[in-house]
Amino acid sequence: MTTSMSMRMTRLRQQLLSSSSPIYTTLSSRLGRITTTRHLPAAAASKRRPLSTSSPTAKAKQLLLLLLIVFALVLLIRAAMSSSSSSPASDATAAAPFENPRTVVKKLLAESQPEGQGATVRRSIGRHELRNLDPFLMLDEFSVSKPAGFPDHPHRGFETVTYMLDGAFTHQDFAGHKGTIRTGDVQWMTAGRGIVHSEMPAADGVQKGLQLWINLSSKDKMIEPRYQELQSNDISCAEKDGVEVKIIAGEAFGARSPVYTRTPTMYMDFTMRPGSQLHQPVPEGWNAFVYIIDGEGVFGTEKAPRVGAHHCLVLGPGDGLSVWNKSGKPLRFALVGGQPLNEPVVQHGPFVMNTRAEIQQAMEDYYHGRNGFEKANHWSST
Questions:
Q1: What pLDDT score was predicted for residue 55?
Q2: DSSP-derived pairing of the beta strands 351-353 and 287-294
Q3: Beta bridge partners of residue 196, listed in sequence order
Q4: What are the angstrom distances between the C-alpha of 49 and each of 39, 46, 148, 334?
Q5: Are strands 168-173 and 351-353 parallel, antiparallel or unpaired?
Q6: Element holding 332 (H helix, E strand)
Q7: For residue 129, how far is the Cα from the chain centroid?
Q8: Is pLDDT at 28 greater than 50 in this prediction?
Q9: Is the CB of residue 314 less than 8 Å from the CB of residue 105?
Q10: CA 111 to CA 337: how far, in whole Å?
Q11: Which among 33, 122, 136, 187 has the fewest CB atoms less than 10 Å away?
Q12: Residue 244, beta-bridge partner list
């Protein structure tokens, strides 16, 4: 028997000794005697009586011993193959949920600026550094206290989505619609051909929220105005592996928002506990961005630097976004994506159309009170 074979037999004997089975115990003792015999000096070995091979009982025992050795070797080979199947390469494949993950291609800190009447907003999309991100026209994080606010003003050609983070805002328009949205509520307003409305604080203290402007295609710019309003308990929610999501539009974790998006849109409010990670699909071909509300996180790739609150992160192309919360505090952010319209954008304040002539027409309609603005000259908010 070679040295290599001797070592294998020794390891096999050690493994068999760990079993309480009488068969394995007997087998291990026999293996020990065989191994010892093979290592005896020639003179000593010659004095030992040779094994009798003529007895049927001896032949049966040798055959059983051989079968047990083969069986044990098969088990060892299978165990080795099983451990090799969970190699680092396969683990790396399992940890990569997207074939083409989205990464951050632009980072913009939303800076404070005056807006409305005495109000302050942090604007990211809509500034000269990021004029728009088709189909998104503007994103404001507002922080407003009485008596400041956004008194009577018109809109045409797009939608506004107001999401209250804290506090309450009262909205009323020239068509008689009036309501108050509170913490966690959403108002999805389609301005269409024209609306005049006001948005004012409805409680004492600081009222906080996000307002997103979404463009409408040329065929929808002159539709009748409409509203979709959701209270916080009507918004779809889900939780998975330390990540909570409120789904304002679109789908996440198997839950879907009831909101109808005329321009295909996803809008989600994620909160991630420390140490958690998220892998959220985003339709390919859509433009998407992240706005960090609170905390700091790692976006796109695990080795990317951490980014903190009030940053807008524009995402590159791909099929999904990965996020890691490596801090000791919760991370909260909005993930927004939309299908590009690929149409010309001409904007003048609250009017967004496709041509300069259409902008001029909107201004004249508002001034003369026609073509959707008939009630504009005879109404004011209370």
A1: 60
A2: unpaired
A3: 154
A4: 16, 8, 109, 85
A5: unpaired
A6: strand 331-338
A7: 26
A8: no
A9: yes
A10: 22
A11: 33
A12: 239, 271
d(C-alpha 244, C-alpha 241), whole Å? 9
Torsion of CA 188, 192, 197, 203, to 10 degrees: 10
CA–CA gap between residue 153 and residue 370 (Å, rounded): 16
Alpha-carbon span 31 to 17, nearest angstrom: 11
Query: In this structure, what token pair is assigned to residue 100?
Result: 């083409």
Residue with tokens 């992240």: 290
The Cα 72–Cα 65 span in angstroms is 11
* Cβ neighbours of residue 276 closer than 8 Å, sequence gap 6 or more: 241, 242, 243, 324, 325
Overall pTM surpassing 0.70 (yes/no):
yes
Residues 6+ positions from 150 with CB-CB distance below 8 Å: 115, 116, 117, 119, 198, 199, 200
**Both structure tokens of 360:** 């001029």
Report the run of H or E that residue 181 belongs to, with start and end.
strand 178-182
Tens digits of residue pLDDT in 240-278 = 999 999 999 999 999 999 999 999 999 999 999 999 999
Residue-wise pLDDT for 304-313, tens only, equals 999 999 999 9
Going by pLDDT thresholds of 50, 70 and 90, the confidence category of residue 80 is low
Two tokens, residue 250 = 């679109």
Q: CA-to-CA distance for 140 and 213, rounded, in angstroms?
A: 9
State both tokens at 351. 């009017």
137 to 75, 127, 268, 337, 338: CA distances (angstroms)? 65, 10, 18, 12, 11
CA distance 277 to 31: 53
Distance, CA of 150 to CA of 121 (rounded, Å): 11
Dihedral (CA of 365, 197, 137, 127) sign: positive
Mean pLDDT of all residues in 76-94:
44
Residue 93: band (very low, low, confident or very high) from pLDDT cuts 50, 70, 90: very low
pLDDT of residue 270: 98
Answer for the pair 72, 31: CB distance below 8 angstroms, yes or no. Answer: no
Q: With beta carbons less than 8 A apart as the criterion, state whether 126 and 115 touch.
A: no
Residue 382 and residue 172 in contact, taking contact as beta carbons nearer than 8 Å = yes
pLDDT digits (tens, 9 = 90+) for 294-306: 999 999 999 999 9
Sorted by sequence, the CB contacts under 8 Å of residue 130 that are 6+ apart come out as 106, 108, 124, 312, 314
> Looking at residue 357, what is its pLDDT?
98
